[in-house]
Amino acid sequence: MARAATHSLAIVTGASTGIGLELAKQCARNGFDLLIAADDPAIEEAARELRSLGVLVETVQADLATLDGVDKLCAAVKGRPVDALLANAGHGLGHGFLDQDFQEARHVIDTNITGTLYLIQTIGRGMRDRKQGRILITGSIAGFMPGTYQAVYNGTKAFIDSFSFALRHEIKDSGVTVTCLMPGATDTEFFERAGMEDTKIGQGKKDDPAMVAKVGFDSMMRGDGDVVAGWKNKLQTAMAAVTPSGVLAEQHRKQAEPGSGHH
């Protein structure tokens, strides 16, 4: 058990696949013990892969859209100091808002915003008390542009991007850093889970989640405020900053419209 105490502890949410799993691998390779969480049983498979990197890995399967789910995750910390929190759990939902099932739309909001904020507040208070810690929040370049046919998802990411910048400045002298990782379209199960495989963006070229995770992890370790992963996304973000919202919304419609992926 002496070894466990010498290792730093990182919590990674949404860690069963995609960017979350790659973030967990970055933590493991850099000597962090892990507490990983996701809402699906694949989290156990991810844990086996991560243990092969020589660190302690604990898993929690919970719906992080709920306060109970977040409480379950925080209880698993067992009072151990958390050195890094990688709040990455999030999902999307395709199609027009008026055609969506409201419970599904609400689950996106509760996962991406409510559960994320509750987790950050709970763990962040402990970090502030100890005057040390790193928080990496997975936002998205989606937060810079209205998401036609992904209205709720992009709205949640606009919230998260904005929130993370504000939180960073609120606690900038506390010894705790807040970094916002803003990926673009990444090659994960995101589009499948969102029901967006038949869209241009769902079928287009995407970034490698391992690259996105490395960029995010390195930025967190440096304590940078925000990082956009991938040069195309940097360009897109710069363009978004000077493009009227109405034009952006129309461009996004062409990318995310159901059936737009069929030729």
TrEMBL record:
One of its GO terms (molecular function) is oxidoreductase activity. It comes from the Bacteria. This is SDR family NAD(P)-dependent oxidoreductase. Pfam families: adh_short. SUPFAM superfamilies: NAD(P)-binding Rossmann-fold domains (SSF51735). Residues 8-188 form the Ketoreductase domain. Keywords: Oxidoreductase. Its EC number is 1.-.-.-. It comes from Azospirillum argentinense. Belongs to the short-chain dehydrogenases/reductases (SDR) family.
